[in-house]
Design a protein that fits this description.
Elements: H1 3-13, H2 16-38, H3 41-58, H4 68-90, H5 109-118, H6 122-128, H7 131-142, H8 147-154, H9 158-177, H10 185-195, H11 204-212, H12 221-266, H13 271-284
Helix pairs in contact: 1-2, 2-3, 2-4, 2-11, 3-4, 3-11, 3-12, 4-12, 7-9, 8-9
């Protein structure tokens, strides 16, 4: 089953098995993104829990065309930023652990070197992409779909899907470049395939499912607070979109009203013509 079908089954039947499968598929993605941003494993677990708690609550509101993986990545960005703010507010930041020495010699020295520059700014750059571009990148490099499959998912032709992924990748490279992470398009693709996701703690997925779908387990206080904060941000974002559409609607119909008024004014007959019409009508009136 696709992610969308699993979410639909969860929404319609409350199937914990369907939700658990979604978590198993994407927990590594969410945890990896969170870890890159908060740089603390325990906090990354809190963020990961918060994102899936939020998904469990919001699953019924997602649009049909939503790519769940892209939604999860966007939610992780919000959650990670909130987690950092919470830690700062409570003044409980721990000192960053010293970087561990590599346990192996990388096969691709250039990829490893470039990754160190890309890693700190990748998620922030991804968050600045439009939703369409982010969906295209996730479908290609995370879900590893063919251009034909991407086209089916996005409702476009295969060649259009190829161009969309290429444009999105170029935009992402540009955003990374402004932050000093210069990388070729081909190497960026390889980096996504190799470095974008790594394994979350083994017990995290089961813990998330138990907390998110209410099996009696209690999540951390931080994850609950983060989930609530992100939910408010998402709602606020939706309200801003609605307000923007409403403003466009008002402006458009205001302009139409003004235009119609001007048109009616221009089409009014000349005063002399008006007078002639009244004279004719008076002469033709029965006496």
């Amino acid at each position: 089953m696709t992610d969308t079908q699993l979410l639909q089954e969860y929404v319609e039947t409350g199937s914990q098995e369907a939700f658990a499968e979604i978590v198993r598929r994407h927990v590594n993605l969410v945890f990896s993104s969170a870890l890159r941003q908060v740089r603390n494993s325990a906090m990354a677990e809190d963020v990961t829990q918060a994102v899936f708690i939020l998904l469990a609550k919001k699953a019924g509101t997602l649009r049909h065309e939503t790519v769940p993986a892209a939604w999860l990545l966007a939610a992780t960005r919000y959650a990670a930023l909130d987690a950092i703010k919470l830690e700062s507010r409570r003044k409980k930041h721990e000192k960053r652990a010293a970087e561990m020495a590599p346990t192996h010699v990388p096969n691709n020295v250039e990829l490893e070197f470039k990754w160190e520059g890309v890693k700190p700014c990748l998620d922030e750059a991804m968050s600045r992409l439009g939703e369409t571009d982010r969906r295209a990148i996730m479908l290609k490099f995370y879900e590893k779909k063919t251009f034909r499959e991407i086209g089916v998912d996005l409702g476009i032709a295969e060649e259009a899907a190829r161009k969309r992924v290429s444009r999105a990748t170029k935009k992402l490279r540009g955003l990374l470049g402004t932050r000093g992470a210069i990388i070729s398009e081909s190497l960026l693709g390889s980096m996504f395939m190799v470095k974008f996701v790594h394994a979350a703690p083994s017990a995290l997925a089961s813990k998330i499912v138990a907390v998110a779908v209410g099996q009696g387990a209690i999540g951390s206080a931080a994850s609950g607070m983060i989930a609530q904060s992100v939910a408010r941000k998402i709602l606020f974002g939706q309200m801003k979109v609605i307000a923007a559409y409403a403003a466009v609607f008002v402006i458009a119909f205001g302009a139409i009203g003004i235009g119609m008024n001007e048109l009616l004014k221009r089409n009014q007959p000349h005063p002399e013509v008006k007078q002639l019409i009244r004279d004719v009508a008076r002469n033709d009136a029965p006496h």
